[in-house]
């Protein structure tokens, strides 16, 4: 290969690697960073280790830029980032809670003998804490609403317009699919709706995916908006307290869901397997397992956000 | 266990910020020249990610500053604050090195006296 060809290859490699870095960092260091990679490689192709090292550093820089690690941004930005991490975690948790509600639908009717005390307590605890989290979210929206109005009045709409449009479109698609499903379900028997895999189940899966996309789109819009708001210290503190509350609730709800599964596995394993009542069945339900893993992942992400908020709390108070 | 502060962590001799400050103490350099110089005096190969991550932090803390440049290779130089920070770090590492050497000497003396009875007096 000619020297020019190798140099062009290096240039495209360095520009590809730069994409792992945040835009603000790229605009400051991008050019010199790219030329260093070109000098470093001297026409050779980068090794996988070299690429991974740049990717790792780029991701760290993104986390730093977002205020999730390090002290590159102000304490209030760090608290805001921590609270937004909890919001993202709760979005994922909310999807898994909705899935859990569907999986556990009519669970109490399936119990024939034995005490329903443990599954009832764990299920009710989960439902109550989900309500607490939803109320906390509404309260956080109320706390940030004046800042949001100020942002809109200052002409901020165009900055978030595309994300909000995506969220509205994905919600409209989800609602349309739900309406179709609801009308269709009226003509089907319980067996056709819940057993086997046919067209109804296929559309149901599409609906679930559309729902998850809509939640993700609204979360992305909320994060993009909140990042741009000019939030007062007291409002930020209130939002942070609400985020801490939600972050604490999520692991408790995950434990409650696990306890519910364990108790149902003992009392009514047929419910989890979807087999006739009283039959001997395996309590290892794949859908429930996936759902619990989602809850755990969301809880861990929530705790990371919680640690970011609590770790910067003192600095926020003194700033 | 006592938690290490961020500064304590930075003051290890093979940490990129200390290596960069040490290199820049010898004169202004751009990224690639810095990496080559560090590989030469410390035997540490800093990739572009690690090097520019450290440069970003050092610049944020005002320990280094960029110089004007006509080409894409932007050189950096150490600031007065950076020199003071490096001096403090070096003296801290020097104290640690001296203490290590002193303790090693004591340990070596003890180990020789255990192996060769009667030599302890002549070593002191």
Describe the protein's architecture and organization.
The complex is a heterodimer of chains A (319) and B (124). Chain A has helices at residues 3-18, 23-41, 48-65, 75-103, 117-153, 157-185, 190-194, 199-228, 233-267, 269-273, 286-318. With 319 residues, chain A is mainly alpha-helical. The longest helix of chain A is centred in the middle third of the chain and has 37 residues, at 117-153. The radius of gyration of chain A is 24 Å and the shape is globular. Chain B has six helices and two strands, in the order ααααββαα. Chain B has helices at residues 6-10, 16-25, 31-42, 48-60, 80-115, 120-123; strands at 64-66, 76-78. In chain B, helix 2 packs across helix 3. Classes of the chains: A mainly alpha (319), B mainly alpha (124). The interface between A and B is medium-sized, with 23 and 19 residues.
